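Q: What residues go here?
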Protein backbone atom coordinates (compact mmCIF):
# COMPACT_ATOMS: atom_id res chain seq x y z
CA UNK A 1 0.00 0.00 0.00
CA UNK A 2 1.26 3.47 -0.82
CA UNK A 3 2.54 5.32 2.28
CA UNK A 4 0.24 8.32 1.72
CA UNK A 5 -2.84 6.10 1.56
CA UNK A 6 -1.75 4.08 4.59
CA UNK A 7 -1.16 7.27 6.58
CA UNK A 8 -4.68 8.51 5.74
CA UNK A 9 -6.11 5.15 6.75
CA UNK A 10 -4.25 5.09 10.09
CA UNK A 11 -5.16 8.73 10.84
CA UNK A 12 -8.82 7.79 10.27
CA UNK A 13 -8.51 5.06 12.91
CA UNK A 14 -8.41 1.99 10.65
CA UNK A 15 -5.69 0.01 12.42
CA UNK A 16 -6.61 -3.62 11.69
CA UNK A 17 -5.47 -5.90 8.87
CA UNK A 18 -2.39 -3.83 8.01
CA UNK A 19 0.72 -5.46 6.64
CA UNK A 20 3.68 -5.20 8.99
CA UNK A 21 6.07 -4.21 6.19
CA UNK A 22 3.75 -1.38 5.12
CA UNK A 23 3.55 0.03 8.66
CA UNK A 24 7.33 -0.32 9.14
CA UNK A 25 8.03 1.47 5.84
CA UNK A 26 5.57 4.25 6.71
CA UNK A 27 7.20 4.77 10.10
CA UNK A 28 10.57 5.20 8.40
CA UNK A 29 9.12 7.69 5.90
CA UNK A 30 7.85 9.66 8.91
CA UNK A 31 11.39 9.91 10.29
CA UNK A 32 11.61 6.91 12.62
CA UNK A 33 14.82 4.88 12.60
CA UNK A 34 15.17 1.22 13.48
CA UNK A 35 17.39 1.20 16.57
CA UNK A 36 17.02 -2.38 17.69
CA UNK A 37 15.51 -5.66 16.60
CA UNK A 38 14.99 -8.56 18.97
CA UNK A 39 13.10 -11.49 17.49
CA UNK A 40 9.84 -10.14 16.13
CA UNK A 41 10.14 -6.86 18.06
CA UNK A 42 11.31 -3.84 16.11
CA UNK A 43 12.18 -0.80 18.24
CA UNK A 44 12.11 2.50 16.38
CA UNK A 45 13.01 5.99 17.54
CA UNK A 46 12.36 9.37 16.02
CA UNK A 47 15.23 11.85 16.48
CA UNK A 48 12.85 14.59 17.68
CA UNK A 49 10.67 12.49 20.02
CA UNK A 50 11.43 11.00 23.43
CA UNK A 51 9.06 8.04 22.97
CA UNK A 52 10.06 4.80 21.30
CA UNK A 53 7.83 2.85 18.95
CA UNK A 54 7.58 -0.93 19.23
CA UNK A 55 6.25 -2.91 16.26
CA UNK A 56 5.88 -6.68 15.99
CA UNK A 57 5.53 -8.83 12.92
CA UNK A 58 2.67 -11.25 13.69
CA UNK A 59 2.46 -13.57 10.69
CA UNK A 60 2.98 -10.66 8.30
CA UNK A 61 0.46 -8.37 10.03
CA UNK A 62 1.07 -5.43 12.37
CA UNK A 63 -0.55 -5.80 15.78
CA UNK A 64 -3.54 -3.42 15.99
CA UNK A 65 -2.73 -2.14 19.49
CA UNK A 66 0.77 -1.17 18.33
CA UNK A 67 -0.64 0.57 15.26
CA UNK A 68 -2.96 2.51 17.63
CA UNK A 69 0.12 3.58 19.65
CA UNK A 70 1.82 4.59 16.38
CA UNK A 71 -1.34 6.52 15.39
CA UNK A 72 -1.29 8.36 18.73
CA UNK A 73 2.29 9.52 18.05
CA UNK A 74 1.42 10.57 14.49
CA UNK A 75 -1.54 12.63 15.69
CA UNK A 76 0.11 14.07 18.82
CA UNK A 77 3.17 15.32 16.94
CA UNK A 78 1.44 15.91 13.57
CA UNK A 79 3.99 13.76 11.75
CA UNK A 80 3.98 14.10 7.96
CA UNK A 81 5.77 12.17 5.24
CA UNK A 82 9.02 13.92 4.42
CA UNK A 83 8.87 16.29 7.41
CA UNK A 84 10.44 16.00 10.81
CA UNK A 85 7.74 16.87 13.39
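A:
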Amino acid sequence: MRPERLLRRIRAGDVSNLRFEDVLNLSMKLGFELTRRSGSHHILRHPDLSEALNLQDAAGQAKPYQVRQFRDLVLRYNLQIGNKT
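A: Context that may help when evaluating the design: The first strand starts at residue 33 and ends at 38. The chain has a mean pLDDT of 94.
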